[in-house]
């Protein structure tokens, strides 16, 4: 997705116009229009300004991350939760991280226990199969 598409998506999600973004950021409407028409791309400092105004992650606007929400948004939501709900969110995040680490550990375990006569291609097929099975769970 191009940066212009990301800006458009963020404008839509926030429910504001280019003119409103201009007022929020101090960036001229014509410059924003040039970015949206792919004539130019915004410089890094402008991306940070827009990300803050649009309540999105700068790395998402840059195209580095697929996560639109900023960590500040996640933290803000977490802090609004009652203590018991915060504990549940934390335990869930820990569980997800453990699952992720488990996937990595399984790959290492298989690599350590396979016969040396397996080719790299065969090993890749085995790892692909394991990932597919885990995704279908």
Automatic annotation (TrEMBL):
Pfam families: HTH_3. Residues 7-61 form the HTH cro/C1-type domain. GO terms for molecular function: DNA binding. Keywords: DNA-binding, Transcription, Transcription regulation. Gene3D superfamilies: lambda repressor-like DNA-binding domains. It comes from the Bacteria. InterPro entries: Cro/C1-type_HTH (IPR001387), Lambda_DNA-bd_dom_sf (IPR010982). PANTHER family: HTH CRO_C1-TYPE DOMAIN-CONTAINING PROTEIN, PTHR40661. This is HTH cro/C1-type domain-containing protein. It comes from Suicoccus acidiformans.
